[in-house]
Amino acid sequence: MPVEETKLITASSVSARIIAAGIVIAFCYWASSVLVTLLVAVLMAYFLDPVVSALERFRLPRALGSLFVVLVTLALLTVLGWSLVDRIDQFGQDWPQYRAPLRSAVQTIERKLDIFEARVSELEPSAHVGVRIVEVAESHPLRNAIFARLGSVYSFLLATTFVPFLVFFMLAAKRQVWHATMQLFPATERTQVKETLTDVTRVLRSYVIGTALVGLILVVTSWLFFWWIGLDFAFLTALASGLLNLVPYLGVIMAWIPPLLVGLRKFHTAGPFIGIFTLLVVLHLITANLLIPALVGWRIRLNALALTVSLLFWGFLWGGMGLILAIPITAVIKVICDHVESWQPVGRWLSA
Predict the structure, then answer these.
(1) Which of 52, 138, 180, 297 is the most buried (most CB within 10 A)?
(2) How confident is the model over 161-214, as pLDDT tens digits?
(3) What CA–CA distances, in Å, run from 163 to 83, 166, 224, 348?
(4) Residue 254 burial (10 A CB sphere; 0-12, 13-18, 19+)
(5) How far from 37 is each of 5, 42, 70, 282, CA to CA, in Å?
(6) Burial label, 204 (beta-carbon count in 10 A; 0-12, 13-18, 19+)
């Protein structure tokens, strides 16, 4: 084959791959609600599957065991959600007492900014002499917030409606789905596909169970400390702070926000806040360097650069849910790359 034709075929192949990647990214963006719902259901199914398998060993039919596990999980989530709503409602009733120190802090910052702007304006001549300023009335902020959140509320309700059914069908029809998936591939490739799916199952199950254990440790530790120092809404604050602390890199900063807001009313000295910040930083360091590598990282094996890029990419596509799903998605991509010969260099790069 002539060199010119070889170069043309190579360029066409690269262009086709770029176009295909663009189509996949566009599909992930526009179908985000469907894909996020499906991925959340998959992770929950991997988390609950050991319980269903244990019930099946006690002679309970898999469909009945799946229904029982899903109903119990929904009941637990409902009780937890109801208690959180009650705490949030109480926090909303006490909000005027928290608003005063926040308003004082904001006014102090605004005064500093006004002084800075006044000094800057003295250094340069005014460019607005003789210019007529027309004020435009702003629209109602509450109305704008409501309309802006309608789409998010609709997506959330859609997800919460479909996730239990998806989890039940995945658990009840696990063997049938596995068999049907194997039938999609030629007989010569089914052994490799089976090994790939087995590794994906191990990775996702290790990630979900390990992350749940780490989150439980963070929440319980934060709760005990907040209760010991007398912080209001100790459990609710610890739940929010502990879950935020699971976010890689940004979690150490995001976890400060809930106890900072709640503590403004009770604490008027810097000591308790220094203790809270110290505890959260220590917990984040222990989580990142000991707990996650011991419970999750040994199975996932992603390098720091790949982890950061995946968080940026999926966070850009799907927002907060993208940050939560970035690690398992990248881990599954790595497993697939490790089992496809032409993609193995990508898998090695992800774990380098």
Answers:
(1) 52
(2) 888 898 999 888 888 888 888 888 888 888 888 888 888 888 888 888 888 888
(3) 22, 5, 33, 34
(4) middle
(5) 45, 9, 16, 34
(6) buried
The label of the residue with tokens 């898998």 reads 347
Which residue in the block uniquely carries the two structure tokens 């596990």? 69
Which phi-psi region, left, alpha or beta, contains residue 249 (left: φ > 0; alpha: ψ -120 to 50)? left
Q: How far apart are the first and last CA of the chain?
A: 37
Give residue 319's pLDDT.
Answer: 82
| Among 178, 198, 166, 185, CA closest to 45 | 166
pLDDT at 198: 86
Calpha distance 277→256 (Å, rounded): 7
DSSP class of residue 295 equals I
Q: How many CB atoms are closer than 10 A to CB 70?
A: 22
DSSP state of 48: H
Please give the Cα distance from 136 to 145 (Å, whole number).
Answer: 19
pLDDT average, residue stretch 64-81: 89
Whole-number Å distance between alpha carbons of 13 and 5: 12
H helix runs in the chain, sequence order: 3-30, 32-57, 62-93, 95-123, 141-172, 174-182, 190-228, 234-244, 251-254, 257-266, 270-286, 292, 298-300, 304-318, 320-339, 344-351
pTM metric for this prediction: 0.70
266 vs 59: which has the higher pLDDT: 59
Tokens of 117: 């702007």
**How far, in Å, CA of 313 to CA of 299, rounded?**
22
Identify the band that residue 149 occupies on the pLDDT scale cut at 50, 70 and 90: very low
Contacts of residue 293, Cβ cutoff 8 Å, sequence gap at least 6: none
Determine the Cα–Cα distance for residues 158 and 151; give it in Å rounded to an integer: 11
For residue 220, give Cα distances in angstroms to 86, 112, 213, 294.
Answer: 20, 40, 11, 19
